[in-house]
């Protein structure tokens, strides 16, 4: 069975909501941001000091993951608590009340449950949640005509509310066990409910597997609400059961009631069906909520309901009053003091109340996107953010009418400035506001009472421009570049936007949403320095092209050719202390390069020859000693001490002084020099300003290959040496150079060494192979923990975590393959954090430690970030250089010295290239050979929004008014009359960008009313006659070789598909396929061919030198055909307009070779061999097979045409004999709206036997076998045609058609039989709508020595909310099954805030059906296994069997029986009668799969390198 491993490289960045309040402590202001399924908790620093000392105003305190996409977030501050709580709801009708546990420093769950209605109809509007100002009740509107009320316990002072709850009988629900309470609560004596459960497992009582095979959760339906509670708190549970899980079995757990406790939901029906917003009133009485709705007459009103006691008992909402008809654009409600309501609309604001006249105030006609109070207590100033990106201030003036109620007398609206299009606003205090967005970067801004002065406005413009172009920090451009940036058109527009503004941008955070399209760019392709993804992102206000790179880039600033580079070191010295010196060790000499830092002249790097250096010998090591006052040079025959101010020689030591002859290797550390002489002798030299002295030396049994030393924080010092012969490493302690007992060895087993599992398997053959020598060693501290790094000659890196408290024994040993050549290890510091540069020639990486866990015994996890520069062999960090800050000196390819500035040490880098305002990018393609990107954009022609927007419209108008001009037919087409009568509102362009600088090289203006739909890069093969290929192309097809068609008529052509919607049309009736070529010499776009289609060209895919096009509901195969002699164009029309050459190819034209009716509207295409998958807007996926045949006539003329492979040789020489056809072979009959489609590559040949592992006992009965088809054999068929499908509901589906069926001859009709279908192999809910899936990978494909070719990253996807992820195939059935077990154990045992069900979160769901997920692996969940402490890893690995020690609570036989691989029930799909796999139960992975824990750890570490 082949699993799909899905992991996020860039998580969702859309902000769905944000709140501000005292969450973690009473004295701290926290910003809580909801992004996807994550909550980010920030601490806020709003002091002015933060603007000058460089500190971050928003500091991330905690990021928590929930099992569900967050739809809303609200903050409640109960009167009886010092800190508030957060109420969140998910897209799958769940809610949770969260608080901060200060003792454990993590988010705790106070209440949780679901709000699913079995008969309710989900609303088509947004999710609405309102909280009573006095924290008494929460109202949730998710179903039409139904408001679900969640009563809160309230404070002791709220006697009226508690009396109302008692009268309605709601508070009695907690006594009957129907309330969500007691999660992780403490007993009266202060103990937790279960002493055997560690806090990392959520504090839940675990008493063995329950009868239904699940862990002790129970989901029960109660009065229209599904409430999830711990099993021991279920209704009807005896007191003995609750007492048995407590610390003291003699008494039950006692829980104190809190004001934030949530009672059972109350369902309240209202007559309004289309509700715009819901808000609670602030009138001081019983809870009352207002509903903004639209009635059948399209009028919008406000209806107020008051909560009370029904006659039959229970809470009931009764109608109290209703407002008059409001503006038709009214969309949001804001509660005002005194019971008034502020209604926010697109064109006006209105203030309504029960006994007051409606007050209307006009505003700019822009939709309100978010709002937030500046003064929440007085409620006089309100911030508004609209859909145009503007921030406005609403000022309300109240009047005390009767001494008890306030009435709004006046409303004023003032524009403050511009920002991103907001989805949420949060006022943080001190004039700071957080703007969360879906269409651009999120911004932290400061509001001023006066407009920014011109100088400060220019600084704000520079800051905004720099935010867009790469972020803040030390990489800011110099003054000259800043001036050029502000003088550019984009800078002028930015300066105009920030002029007369009250909003100052302080910080921003990267957001890729909405990500519309992307292309994968490989490292080194077309001269590209970096590999990664180039994506189209942003809305009309902030459109941009985002370059996302996985790894660390090095921007080259200086290079020189120096043949024979073997070593590299960088020093600083000179008379002024500002001279930078680069020491280059060559094979037979030493070369010194130096430059002096100066601000009044240009930098000049030149070779120098100081007298003190031994330049006639190669340098083995060099470095600064004695606090930088001296330098040391080590050569094969001497160790030289030099003064750093003038590089004069102070002292010299030779190995002959102790009877040795030659130094082989050395290292300089601190005030000591360690070296190896005469092969096996290790020496240590003490360095002083006046001389060198050998303090100790020792003879080893093997020749030393490399050496290093390090002084630790506790004052001890160690020397590590690599040895030839035994190919191992030794750790020696100073000062006696005594070998550390039980020290590290590259041949020891990997994993936790001194606490290994009893059944631990030995290390793999690749890890214990002793045929490769040790070439580099390094002792260093990473994450405040000591490590020994060992690089071997085959590119493998071993890292040993050392235990300072246990005689420097090895705590952990791991190995990773980074390349195929010798490694060099160099420590350096970037942004105050230590890191190690691992140079390996073919592949380099930077090694750094993640944040250390609170547990001091936990070894920090080491992370590898790829370096996007190939051929690095030696590295030297440059320290203290103003000309090259944070720079590295690199030796590349053995003959090139480079100085470059490295990116910050992190795995993912995002660089933004802004586009002009209102220029939305839609499609992008990349050509590696030409080093260009092709982008299609849509521009608004509204001159009021963009002063330069009328340029495109003026160009059309000029052409339309010309009486005779050949450009009209080429540029305008036949829309001249419509253009003059109905001017279009938008224009589209096809633009070519430079792949390095992203500068515009040329641009093509499309016709009026024409919009871009698809774009691809292809090479079209010339067809010699209608339907026949040239002989060279035929031979390439017949022999099935993969050689490039160098003689093709059209190489590296960008093909653009468009749609044309004329005025008065609802859908596109026409479209075009435009073939363009980029001329780099003249920097021009050549339009060489055009095909007019009868519909929109939604998708284009290259196919064997031809072109597949999804046009409307049909699939067309287009070919680049040579024109017939009678149809040749002697003088094709040629024109030049806007830098674009319009000239049809006189010899070729684009024709239709064959077509086939697809489904309703074909939106996406994918190709796998001869098979073409077509994704539809409503009818899922259809599969077609391509065939070529030779038409042979017979007597009756009805003989079947033979395939091309069976045709005679002379049939290909000429004549219209070769024909093409597309045959429908299979279809998925499910109603799925396909948003993206991609073919899953076939597994490697050596992995095919691994995909059918021997099943575990009792694992063969899970499958339902169809009488027509053996589905099990189809599911595990390794040579099946597989396709990955993404739908509009955020699901991934893998469809397959086995190779055994594809060999059957299809029928001649277009109707598909029941057996000709695509079968569902895997389903999984990703939680976001995937817009694009492209073949490719974010990392270099370096085989892992332990798992060679098992994990293959093959696809890269991008989502609507800005997430980028990788889909990899796990081509080993046993490993996939093992990872599935680990995923199940982690999902069930490691609780997340909210305690939402993981299977519900990842289960497949749509508006038609829902089912469990299967066939996919959650990489984000599995990789978090490495963040757990070793104790928790062991508990998860064993299925928490060790948690239960009481024999009366645990039966081992029962545990094994209920931990079977497949659960007891089976689920059968009705469509196609195909069985799917039921959910896996918690199991002991070591017991079931016979693998040790350290094997699983190494497996997960290998997976982390896929992204």
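Q: What amino acid sequence fits the structure above?
A:
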């Amino acid at each position: 069975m082949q699993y799909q491993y899905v992991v996020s490289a860039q998580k969702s960045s859309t902000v769905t909501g944000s709140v501000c309040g005292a969450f973690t402590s009473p004295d701290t202001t926290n910003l809580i941001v909801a992004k996807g399924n994550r909550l980010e908790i920030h601490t806020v620093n709003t002091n002015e000091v933060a603007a000058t000392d460089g500190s971050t105003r928003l500091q991330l305190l905690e990021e928590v993951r929930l099992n569900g996409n967050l739809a809303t977030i609200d903050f409640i501050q109960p009167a009886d608590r010092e800190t508030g709580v957060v109420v969140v709801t998910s897209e799958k009708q769940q809610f949770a009340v969260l608080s901060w546990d200060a003792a454990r420093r993590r988010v705790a769950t106070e209440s949780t449950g679901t709000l699913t209605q079995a008969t309710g109809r989900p609303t088509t509007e947004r999710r609405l949640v309102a909280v009573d100002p006095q924290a008494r009740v929460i109202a949730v509107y998710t179903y039409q005509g139904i408001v679900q009320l969640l009563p809160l316990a309230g404070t002791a002072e709220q006697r009226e509310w508690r009396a109302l709850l008692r009268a309605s009988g709601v508070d009695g629900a907690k006594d009957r066990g129907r309330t969500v309470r007691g999660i992780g609560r403490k007993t009266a004596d202060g103990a937790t409910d279960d002493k055997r459960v560690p806090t990392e497992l959520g504090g839940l009582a675990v008493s063995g597997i329950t009868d239904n095979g699940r862990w002790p959760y129970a989901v029960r339906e109660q009065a229209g609400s599904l409430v999830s509670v711990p099993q021991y708190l279920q209704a009807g549970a005896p007191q003995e059961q609750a007492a048995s899980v407590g610390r003291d079995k003699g008494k039950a757990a006692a829980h104190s009631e809190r004001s934030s406790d949530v009672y059972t939901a109350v369902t309240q029906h209202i007559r309004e069906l289309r509700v715009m917003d819901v808000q609670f009133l602030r009138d001081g009485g019983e809870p009352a909520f207002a509903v903004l709705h639209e009635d059948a007459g399209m009028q919008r009103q406000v209806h107020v309901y008051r909560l009370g006691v029904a006659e039959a008992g229970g809470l009931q909402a009764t109608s109290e009053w209703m407002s008059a008809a409001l503006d038709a654009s009214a969309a949001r409600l804001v509660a005002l003091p005194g019971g008034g309501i502020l209604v926010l609309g697109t064109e006006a604001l209105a203030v309504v109340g029960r006994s007051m006249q409606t007050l209307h105030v006009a505003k700019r006609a822009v939709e309100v996107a978010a709002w937030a109070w500046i003064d929440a207590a007085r409620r006089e100033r309100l911030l508004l953010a609209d859909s145009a990106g503007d921030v406005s201030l609403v000022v309300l003036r109240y009047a005390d009418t009767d001494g008890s109620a306030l009435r709004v007398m006046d409303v004023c609206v003032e524009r403050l400035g511009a920002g991103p299009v907001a989805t949420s606003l949060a006022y943080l205090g001190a004039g700071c506001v957080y703007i969360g967005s879906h269409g651009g970067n999120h911004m932290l801004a400061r509001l001023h009472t006066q407009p920014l002065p011109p100088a400060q406005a220019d600084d704000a413009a520079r800051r905004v421009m720099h935010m867009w172009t790469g972020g803040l920090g030390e990489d800011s451009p110099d003054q000259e570049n800043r001036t050029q940036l502000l003088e550019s058109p984009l800078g002028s527009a930015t300066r105009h936007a920030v002029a007369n503004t009250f909003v100052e941008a302080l910080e921003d955070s990267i957001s890729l949403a909405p990500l519309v399209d992307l292309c994968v760019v490989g490292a080194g392709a077309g001269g590209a320095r970096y590999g990664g993804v180039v994506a189209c992102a942003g809305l009309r206000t902030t459109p941009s092209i985002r370059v996302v790179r996985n790894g660390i880039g090095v921007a080259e600033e200086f290079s020189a050719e120096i043949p024979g580079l073997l070593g590299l070191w960088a020093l600083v010295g000179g008379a002024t202390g500002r001279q930078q010196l680069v020491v280059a060790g060559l094979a037979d000499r030493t070369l010194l390069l130096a430059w002096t830092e100066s601000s009044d002249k240009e930098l000049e790097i030149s070779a120098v020859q100081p007298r003190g250096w031994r330049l006639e010998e190669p340098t083995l090591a060099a470095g600064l000693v004695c606090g930088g006052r001296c330098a040391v040079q080590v050569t094969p025959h001497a160790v030289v001490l030099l003064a750093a101010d003038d590089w004069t020689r102070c002292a010299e030591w030779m190995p002959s002084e102790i009877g040795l002859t030659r130094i082989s290797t050395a290292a300089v550390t601190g005030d000591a020099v360690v070296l190896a002489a005469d092969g096996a002798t290790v020496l240590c030299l003490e360095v002083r300003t006046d001389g060198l002295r050998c303090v100790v030396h020792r003879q080893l049994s093997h020749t030393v290959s490399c050496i290093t030393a390090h002084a630790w924080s506790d004052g001890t010092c160690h020397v590590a040496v690599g040895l030839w012969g035994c190919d191992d490493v030794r750790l020696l302690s100073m000062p006696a150079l005594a070998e550390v007992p039980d020290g590290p060895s590259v041949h020891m087993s990997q994993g936790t060494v001194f606490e290994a599992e009893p059944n631990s398997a030995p290390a793999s053959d690749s890890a214990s192979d002793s045929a490769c020598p040790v070439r580099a060693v390094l002792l260093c501290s990473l994450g405040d923990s000591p490590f020994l790094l060992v690089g071997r000659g085959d590119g493998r890196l071993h890292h040993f975590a050392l235990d300072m408290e246990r005689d420097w024994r090895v705590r952990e040993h791991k190995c990773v393959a980074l390349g195929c050549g010798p490694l060099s290890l160099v420590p350096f510091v970037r942004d105050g954090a230590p890191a190690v540069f691992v140079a390996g020639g073919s592949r380099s990486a930077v090694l750094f430690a993640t944040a250390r866990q609170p547990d001091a015994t936990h070894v920090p996890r080491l992370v590898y970030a790829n370096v996007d520069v190939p051929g690095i062999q030696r590295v030297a960090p440059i320290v203290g250089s103003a000309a090259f800050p944070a720079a590295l000196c690199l030796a590349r390819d053995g003959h090139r010295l480079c100085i470059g500035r490295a990116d910050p040490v992190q795995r993912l880098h995002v660089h933004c290239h802004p586009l002009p305002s209102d220029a939305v990018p839609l499609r992008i393609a990349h050509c590696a050979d030409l080093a260009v990107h092709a982008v299609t954009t849509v521009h608004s022609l509204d001159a009021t929004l963009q002063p330069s927007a009328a340029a495109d419209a003026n160009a059309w108008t000029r052409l339309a008014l010309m009486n005779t001009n050949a450009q009209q037919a080429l540029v305008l087409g036949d829309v001249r009359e419509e253009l003059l009568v109905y001017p279009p509102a938008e224009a589209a362009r096809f633009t070519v960008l430079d792949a390095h600088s992203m500068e515009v090289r040329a641009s093509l203006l499309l016709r009026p009313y024409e919009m871009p739909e698809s774009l691809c890069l292809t090479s079209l093969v010339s067809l010699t006659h209608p339907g026949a290929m040239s002989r060279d192309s035929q031979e390439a097809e017949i022999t099935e070789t993969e050689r490039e068609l160098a003689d093709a008529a059209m190489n590296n052509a960008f093909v653009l598909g468009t749609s044309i919607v004329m005025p008065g049309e609802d859908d596109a009736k026409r479209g075009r396929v435009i073939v363009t070529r980029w001329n780099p010499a003249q920097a021009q776009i050549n339009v060489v061919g055009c095909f007019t289609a009868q519909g929109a060209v939604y998708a284009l895919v290259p196919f064997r030198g031809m072109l597949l096009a999804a046009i409307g509901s049909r699939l067309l195969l287009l070919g680049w055909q040579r024109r017939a002699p009678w149809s040749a164009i002697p003088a094709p029309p040629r024109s030049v307009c806007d830098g674009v050459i319009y000239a049809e190819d006189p010899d070729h034209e684009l024709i239709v070779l064959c077509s086939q009716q697809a489904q309703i509207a074909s939106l996406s295409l994918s190709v796998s061999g001869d098979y073409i998958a077509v994704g539809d807007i409503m009818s899922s996926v259809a599969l077609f097979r391509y065939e070529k045949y030779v038409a042979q006539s017979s007597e009756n003329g009805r003989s079947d045409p033979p395939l091309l492979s069976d045709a005679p040789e002379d049939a290909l020489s000429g004549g219209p004999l070769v024909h093409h056809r597309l045959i429908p072979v299979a279809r998925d009959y499910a109603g799925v709206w396909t948003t993206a489609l991609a073919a899953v590559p076939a597994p490697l040949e050596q992995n095919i036997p691994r995909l059918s592992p021997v099943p575990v006992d009792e694992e063969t009965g899970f499958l339902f076998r169809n009488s027509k088809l053996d589905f099990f054999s189809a599911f595990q068929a390794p040579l099946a045609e597989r396709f990955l499908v993404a739908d509009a509901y955020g699901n991934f589906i893998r469809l397959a058609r086995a190779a055994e069926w594809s060999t059957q001859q299809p029928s001649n009709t277009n109707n598909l039989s029941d057996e000709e279908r695509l079968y569902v192999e895997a389903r999984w809910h990703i939680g976001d709508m995937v817009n694009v899936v492209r073949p490719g990978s974010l990392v270099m494909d370096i085989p892992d020595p332990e798992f060679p070719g098992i994990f293959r990253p093959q696809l890269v996807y991008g989502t609507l909310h800005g997430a980028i992820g990788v889909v990899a195939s796990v081509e080993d059935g046993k490993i996939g099954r093992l990872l599935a077990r680990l995923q199940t154990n982690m999902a069930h045992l490691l609780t997340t805030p909210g305690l939402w069900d993981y299977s519900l979160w990842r289960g497949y769901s749509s508006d038609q059906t829902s089912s469990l997920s299967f066939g996919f692996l959650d990489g984000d969940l599995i990789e978090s296994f490495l963040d757990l402490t070793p104790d928790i890893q062991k508990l998860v690995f064993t299925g928490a069997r060790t948690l239960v020690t009481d024999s009366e609570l645990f039966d081992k036989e029962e545990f094994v029986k209920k931990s079977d691989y497949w659960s007891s029930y089976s689920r059968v799909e009705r469509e196609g009668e195909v069985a799917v796999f039921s959910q896996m139960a918690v199991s002991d992975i070591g017991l079931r799969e016979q693998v040790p824990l350290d094997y699983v750890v190494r497996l997960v570490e290998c997976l982390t390198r896929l992204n």
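Q: And what stands out in the fold?
A: The chain has a mean pLDDT of 78.
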